Amino acid sequence: MDSTTEKIVILDRDGVINQDSDAYIKSPEEWIPLEDSLEAIAQLNRNGYRVFIFTNQSGIARGYFDIKTLELMHAKMDKMLQEVGGKIEKIFYCPHGPDDGCDCRKPNIGMLKQIEKHVGHSLESAYVVGDSKKDIEAATNINAKPNLVLTGKTTSAPDWGINNLSVFQNLKAFADSVCDKQ
What we know:
Mean pLDDT: 95
Number of strands: 6
Order of helices and strands: EHEHEHEHEEH
Structural class: alpha/beta
Shape: globular
Strand content: 15-25%
Largest sheet: 6 strands, parallel
Protein backbone atom coordinates (compact mmCIF):
# COMPACT_ATOMS: atom_id res chain seq x y z
CA MET A 1 0.00 0.00 0.00
CA ASP A 2 1.08 3.57 -0.50
CA SER A 3 0.50 6.61 1.64
CA THR A 4 -2.62 7.66 -0.27
CA THR A 5 -4.56 4.44 0.29
CA GLU A 6 -3.45 3.23 3.69
CA LYS A 7 -5.42 4.45 6.69
CA ILE A 8 -3.20 5.52 9.59
CA VAL A 9 -3.97 7.35 12.83
CA ILE A 10 -1.17 8.46 15.15
CA LEU A 11 -2.21 9.39 18.67
CA ASP A 12 -0.53 11.25 21.46
CA ARG A 13 -1.10 9.36 24.73
CA ASP A 14 -1.56 11.58 27.79
CA GLY A 15 -4.56 13.86 27.39
CA VAL A 16 -5.80 12.02 24.29
CA ILE A 17 -6.19 8.38 25.39
CA ASN A 18 -5.74 8.72 29.15
CA GLN A 19 -6.04 11.41 31.77
CA ASP A 20 -3.06 13.73 31.94
CA SER A 21 -1.41 15.24 34.99
CA ASP A 22 1.03 18.11 35.49
CA ALA A 23 2.67 15.76 38.01
CA TYR A 24 3.15 13.14 35.24
CA ILE A 25 1.56 9.73 34.87
CA LYS A 26 4.07 7.65 36.83
CA SER A 27 2.47 4.23 37.35
CA PRO A 28 -0.08 1.83 35.90
CA GLU A 29 -2.45 2.87 38.72
CA GLU A 30 -2.27 6.49 37.55
CA TRP A 31 -2.92 5.49 33.92
CA ILE A 32 -6.71 6.01 33.63
CA PRO A 33 -8.38 6.05 30.22
CA LEU A 34 -10.51 9.00 29.21
CA GLU A 35 -14.20 8.27 28.68
CA ASP A 36 -14.81 6.47 25.35
CA SER A 37 -11.15 6.75 24.25
CA LEU A 38 -10.52 3.00 24.15
CA GLU A 39 -13.81 2.43 22.32
CA ALA A 40 -12.76 5.12 19.82
CA ILE A 41 -9.52 3.24 19.09
CA ALA A 42 -11.49 0.01 18.60
CA GLN A 43 -13.84 1.88 16.24
CA LEU A 44 -10.86 3.11 14.21
CA ASN A 45 -9.50 -0.45 14.07
CA ARG A 46 -12.86 -1.83 12.89
CA ASN A 47 -12.85 0.77 10.12
CA GLY A 48 -9.47 -0.35 8.83
CA TYR A 49 -7.17 2.15 10.54
CA ARG A 50 -3.72 1.21 11.76
CA VAL A 51 -3.30 3.04 15.07
CA PHE A 52 0.04 4.14 16.53
CA ILE A 53 1.08 6.17 19.54
CA PHE A 54 3.81 8.81 19.70
CA THR A 55 4.40 10.21 23.15
CA ASN A 56 6.92 12.37 24.98
CA GLN A 57 7.77 10.61 28.24
CA SER A 58 10.27 12.94 29.87
CA GLY A 59 9.29 11.47 33.26
CA ILE A 60 11.90 8.81 32.45
CA ALA A 61 14.70 11.39 32.04
CA ARG A 62 13.47 13.22 35.14
CA GLY A 63 13.66 10.00 37.20
CA TYR A 64 9.92 9.86 38.01
CA PHE A 65 9.58 6.35 36.54
CA ASP A 66 11.63 3.89 34.52
CA ILE A 67 11.14 2.14 31.19
CA LYS A 68 9.86 -1.02 32.93
CA THR A 69 7.10 1.06 34.58
CA LEU A 70 6.27 2.68 31.22
CA GLU A 71 5.97 -0.81 29.72
CA LEU A 72 3.60 -1.80 32.57
CA MET A 73 1.43 1.26 31.82
CA HIS A 74 1.30 0.25 28.16
CA ALA A 75 0.52 -3.36 29.06
CA LYS A 76 -2.45 -2.11 31.10
CA MET A 77 -3.61 -0.01 28.14
CA ASP A 78 -3.20 -2.95 25.74
CA LYS A 79 -5.20 -5.26 28.03
CA MET A 80 -8.00 -2.71 28.39
CA LEU A 81 -8.02 -2.15 24.63
CA GLN A 82 -8.28 -5.89 23.97
CA GLU A 83 -11.35 -6.02 26.20
CA VAL A 84 -13.15 -3.59 23.85
CA GLY A 85 -11.75 -5.06 20.63
CA GLY A 86 -9.06 -2.48 19.96
CA LYS A 87 -5.30 -2.47 19.53
CA ILE A 88 -2.34 -0.18 19.08
CA GLU A 89 0.01 -1.46 16.39
CA LYS A 90 3.14 0.07 17.91
CA ILE A 91 4.09 2.67 20.51
CA PHE A 92 6.89 5.15 19.88
CA TYR A 93 8.10 7.21 22.82
CA CYS A 94 10.73 9.82 23.59
CA PRO A 95 12.37 9.18 26.98
CA HIS A 96 14.40 12.40 26.87
CA GLY A 97 14.05 15.63 28.79
CA PRO A 98 13.35 18.99 27.16
CA ASP A 99 17.04 20.04 27.26
CA ASP A 100 18.52 16.77 25.93
CA GLY A 101 18.67 17.94 22.30
CA CYS A 102 17.18 14.79 20.80
CA ASP A 103 15.34 14.67 17.47
CA CYS A 104 12.43 12.60 18.82
CA ARG A 105 10.92 14.97 21.40
CA LYS A 106 7.84 16.67 19.96
CA PRO A 107 7.52 19.05 18.16
CA ASN A 108 10.53 17.38 16.47
CA ILE A 109 9.59 14.63 14.04
CA GLY A 110 11.94 11.81 15.05
CA MET A 111 9.13 9.55 16.31
CA LEU A 112 7.05 10.27 13.20
CA LYS A 113 10.08 9.41 11.03
CA GLN A 114 10.29 6.09 12.92
CA ILE A 115 6.62 5.46 12.10
CA GLU A 116 7.28 6.29 8.43
CA LYS A 117 10.10 3.72 8.42
CA HIS A 118 7.81 1.16 10.12
CA VAL A 119 4.98 1.60 7.58
CA GLY A 120 7.30 2.07 4.60
CA HIS A 121 5.94 5.36 3.25
CA SER A 122 5.32 9.01 4.08
CA LEU A 123 2.67 10.07 6.57
CA GLU A 124 1.15 12.76 4.34
CA SER A 125 -2.30 11.13 4.46
CA ALA A 126 -2.06 10.07 8.11
CA TYR A 127 -4.13 11.67 10.84
CA VAL A 128 -2.21 12.86 13.89
CA VAL A 129 -4.27 13.48 17.03
CA GLY A 130 -2.92 15.43 19.98
CA ASP A 131 -3.90 17.69 22.84
CA SER A 132 -1.07 20.24 22.68
CA LYS A 133 0.60 22.63 20.28
CA LYS A 134 3.72 20.39 20.27
CA ASP A 135 1.65 17.48 18.91
CA ILE A 136 0.09 19.65 16.23
CA GLU A 137 3.43 21.20 15.24
CA ALA A 138 4.95 17.72 14.86
CA ALA A 139 2.06 16.75 12.56
CA THR A 140 2.46 19.85 10.40
CA ASN A 141 6.27 19.49 10.39
CA ILE A 142 5.88 16.12 8.62
CA ASN A 143 2.87 17.19 6.47
CA ALA A 144 0.38 14.87 8.19
CA LYS A 145 -3.22 15.89 8.97
CA PRO A 146 -3.31 17.72 12.35
CA ASN A 147 -6.22 17.07 14.73
CA LEU A 148 -6.62 18.55 18.19
CA VAL A 149 -8.72 17.07 20.99
CA LEU A 150 -9.81 19.26 23.91
CA THR A 151 -9.33 16.62 26.62
CA GLY A 152 -5.82 17.41 27.84
CA LYS A 153 -3.45 20.37 27.74
CA THR A 154 -5.71 22.42 25.43
CA THR A 155 -9.33 22.74 26.52
CA SER A 156 -10.70 25.28 24.02
CA ALA A 157 -10.17 25.88 20.31
CA PRO A 158 -6.89 27.79 19.97
CA ASP A 159 -5.86 30.44 17.48
CA TRP A 160 -2.47 28.99 16.58
CA GLY A 161 -2.67 29.99 12.93
CA ILE A 162 -2.22 26.39 11.79
CA ASN A 163 -3.86 25.59 8.46
CA ASN A 164 -6.17 22.61 8.19
CA LEU A 165 -6.33 22.05 11.95
CA SER A 166 -9.42 20.06 12.89
CA VAL A 167 -10.63 20.40 16.49
CA PHE A 168 -12.72 17.79 18.35
CA GLN A 169 -14.14 17.57 21.85
CA ASN A 170 -12.52 14.15 22.38
CA LEU A 171 -11.04 11.11 20.65
CA LYS A 172 -14.50 9.55 20.14
CA ALA A 173 -15.67 12.65 18.23
CA PHE A 174 -12.55 12.40 16.04
CA ALA A 175 -13.16 8.68 15.40
CA ASP A 176 -16.82 9.31 14.57
CA SER A 177 -15.80 12.02 12.11
CA VAL A 178 -13.16 10.07 10.18
CA CYS A 179 -15.15 6.85 10.17
CA ASP A 180 -18.25 8.66 8.88
CA LYS A 181 -16.23 10.07 5.94
CA GLN A 182 -15.70 6.59 4.50
